[in-house]
Amino acid sequence: MKIIETIEALRQELKPYRNQTIGFVPTMGYLHEGHLSLVRRASQECDIVVMSIFVNPLQFGPNEDLDRYPRDLPRDAALAEQAGVDFLFHPSVEEMYPNPTLTQIVVSKVTEPLCGASRPGHFTGVATVVGKLFHIVMPDRAYFGLKDAQQVAVIQQMVEDLNFPVTIVPCDIVREPDGLAMSSRNVYLSPEERKQAVILSQALFAAKKGLEEGEWSTADEVNRFVREMILTQPLAEIDYVETLAYPSLQPVDELKGQKVIVAVAVRFGKTRLIDNILHAGEE
């Protein structure tokens, strides 16, 4: 595996492989099994795998955890190489943004609910950096985890609207043995917060079962059920619980026959966790 720090060097390295299939896994590092599962899938489906590790300042708000976001390049590089990454792109902020960014990619509608409502500007930062990375790497396929299903919907919309020549491959959420969705932010949880955080997946799995059994007819009923279950844990502070059409992320009146997402964002102490389940909604 080669570690590359400049845009020009990466472009030169990838030149000989343009007639092969290039897979791309963009990350902010502090890798866990969720990221590595994306790499393994990319390795199976592509000839060359590129991973980026870049903590993107554009997608962090003024009071968010940019400075304390966990970073450990030697650890990440070892894990990436083991999983099958061929080129690890690790640019500095100065390399990615040598001048103030006057051009941004703004995706509307799908960015407005869920994390878009509580983190204004977040998805503009995500779309802008992913757009830049797609131009730099020029991958054939790009792999994203569905833990942030809204991010996947935003990237898919951007790719479709702007005709990026890349196939987006959404990949299933990878979970800890007790059900907690894997996240780089899980390291911030105290032992008691970590114990209580399991309620997120428990509530979502129970909601999925209820949806499959036709227990509810409206999104509000699902939201109320999930909210009440999460609030059985005293440290849980809910940001949102929403049931929306997927991937449009628009409100749903009738659950039957709709593909929906039940998505949550909940704080445990200073740590904000997101999780979701998708329900196919066949008749």
From TrEMBL:
Family annotation (CDD domains): PanC
Pfam families reported for this sequence: Pantoate_ligase
Active-site residues from the entry: 35
InterPro entries assigned: Cyt_trans-like, Pantoate_ligase, Pantoate_ligase_C, Rossmann-like_a/b/a_fold
Protein location: Cytoplasm
NCBIfam families membership: cyt_tran_rel, panC
UniProt family annotation: Belongs to the pantothenate synthetase family.
Record's miscellaneous remark: The reaction proceeds by a bi uni uni bi ping pong mechanism.
Name listed for the protein in its UniProt record: Pantothenate synthetase
Native source organism of the sequence: Thermoflavimicrobium dichotomicum
